[in-house]
Amino acid sequence: MAKKNKKSSHKPKRGTGWSIWLILIVIHSFLAAFATLSMMRTPDAVSRQWLITLLLLFTAAKAIAALGMWEWKQWGLYLYVIAVLGTMGVTLVLTSFLIWGVFWEAIPLLITGWLLRGKQEYFD
Predict the structure, then answer these.
(1) pLDDT tens for residues 59-75?
(2) Residues 93-113 pLDDT 10s
(3) Which contacts (CB < 8 Å, 24+ apart) does range 76-85 have?
(4) From CA 81, how far away is CA 8, in angstroms rounded?
(5) Residue spans per domain, the chain
(6) Secondary-structure breakdown of the chain: helix, strand, coil percentages, each rounded to the nearest 5
(7) Separation in Å, CA 10 to CA 50, 56, 59, 72, 119
(8) What is the pTM of this model?
(9) Nearest-angstrom CA–CA distance, 28 and 54
(10) Rounded to an integer, what distance in angstroms lies between the CA atom of residue 22 and that of residue 37?
């Protein structure tokens, strides 16, 4: 017989503030993508298509990551960090290195880290 993992199956209660924050992460990801697309300055049509595709994939990844974090999954947290960093890079290229894109993405990431301080053990 295979041994079962001894990790507790008990999930911690997700507070109202954390639930609202995860919903705001999803809303923010779509608003940030829209803002980036409206301020786009990249002249080359071919590279612009690839960058827009990447931006939309990172936007979807942030929404999926929020769902993972909703269920206290470690992969959701890692996916969120990767998607935010990717979005920062794409935003810088699409907007000709306007620094607002970095702050627009970094602030929610920092708030998420602050909200999760001391709660790392909740994640599977």
Answers:
(1) 999 999 999 999 989 99
(2) 888 777 887 888 999 999 999
(3) 76/123, 77/116, 77/123, 80/25, 80/109, 80/112, 81/109, 83/29, 83/58, 83/59, 84/58, 84/108, 84/109
(4) 26
(5) 16-116
(6) 70, 0, 30
(7) 43, 35, 31, 11, 14
(8) 0.84
(9) 17
(10) 23
Distance CA 110, CA 52 (A): 25
CB-based contact 104:35 (threshold 8 Å): yes
- Alpha carbon distance 90, 62 (integer Å): 14
What is the predicted pLDDT for the residue at 96? 77
What is the C-alpha separation between 15 and 71, in angstroms, rounded? 12
Query: DSSP per residue over 46-75, as a string?
Result: HHHHHHHHHHHHHHHHHHHHHHHHHTT-HH
Amino acid symbol at 31: L
Around Cβ 25, how many Cβ atoms within 10 Å?
A: 21
d(CA 114, CA 65) in angstroms, rounded, equals 17
